[in-house]
Amino acid sequence: MGYQGKPTIRKKIIGRYLHRLREAADMSMEEVAQEFGVSRSAVHRQETGHTATKRAHAEKYLRLYKVQDKALAQRILDLSRTSSKKGWWEGYRDVADLAQVEVADLEDLAVSISNYEAMLIPGLLQTNEYSEALMVETDPRLRSNGLNAHKSLELRNQRKAILTREDRPELRFVFTEVAFDFPAAGPDVMKDQAKHLIRLIQDEQISIQILKRTPDGAFKAPTRQILTVTTGGDDAESIAYFDHALGGSLVDDQHAARRMADLFVHLQHEALAPEETARYLEGVLRNGNGMGEER
To answer: Could you tell me if 105 and 89 are in contact, meaning their C-beta atoms sit under 8 angstroms apart?
Structure first.
């Protein structure tokens, strides 16, 4: 198979495993290529995720590298089976940037998700009304295109199905109380959002925490989104998402992913505990936006 363009998440993960296994076997790309009767560039494209690794190829690699870890071998075979599949998220490329589509793919694979938001309610926790107000307010294309607005909301709702999935990942969320100062949503939308969050907090498998302002009105926190996703039990499958002015991008560098994960843990320690967060949200219901209970 020839060059496939930008690597997808699943191809990247398999490629990272193959690279590590080859190094553990103390083999060069040239030696692997000779064993398989292919070019060095063909091996390189699979290790970098630019070419899909089909199951038959994955089995050859596992035999060549003498992989004894059955769980690891099965993980690689499972990924090879789905690395070329088109998930439900592919139908939304016309209304979402590449990073959003890749995040949906990541969430589908995830065993754990850690999400910090500086200004907004995290997407997976949003009510439909909050999502709609947010999308129309922040994306000029949606204000003039009702069809795109509908499809963007569909994409968000499809992603939220992960909250009730039987094999759902471990879910952890931190966001600042600035999220309740979102004027475009309106007080009724924000109160419904607060009720929704309180219901979710009652689910012990979902951790939701609010980070409050310091007494001087500031935050000891990043101003950009943090999202780290682990899709397996190995460091090879930790991926970070960096939010930026042009939309955001996924970074699979393991050092960066670990730094993001460590920063998220720090934010958890600084934020209200889930039970304190529930009390804060009760205050929002009583008093309005940004008027939760004091710590």
So the answer is: yes
Half-sphere exposure of 105 (CA within 13 A, CB side): 29
Sole residue written with tokens 């992960």: 162
Whole-number Å distance between alpha carbons of 176 and 179: 6
HEC per residue, the chain: CCCCCCCCHHHHHHHHHHHHHHHHCCCCHHHHHHHHCCCHHHHHHHHCCCCCCCHHHHHHHHHHCCCCCHHHHHHHHHHHHHCCCCCHHHHHCCCCCHHHHHHHHHHHHCCEEEEEECCCCCHHHCCHHHHHHHHHHHCHHHHHCHHHHHHHHHHHHHHHHHHHCCCCCEEEEEEEHHHHHCCCCCHHHHHHHHHHHHHHHCCCCEEEEEECCCCCCCCCCCCCCEEEEECCCCHHHEEEEECCCCCCEEECCHHHHHHHHHHHHHHHHHCCCHHHHHHHHHHHHHHCCCCCCCC
Rounded to 10°, the helix 40-47/29-36 angle is: 110
Task: Give the mean model confidence (pLDDT) for residues 44-71.
Answer: 92
**pLDDT tens figures, 109-153:** 888 899 999 888 998 999 988 888 887 666 555 455 554 667 777
Stated pTM of the model: 0.78
- Tokens read off for 34: 């000779």
**For residue 226, what are the contacts with CB-CB under 8 A and spacing of at least 6?**
114, 115, 116, 240, 241, 243, 260, 263, 264, 267
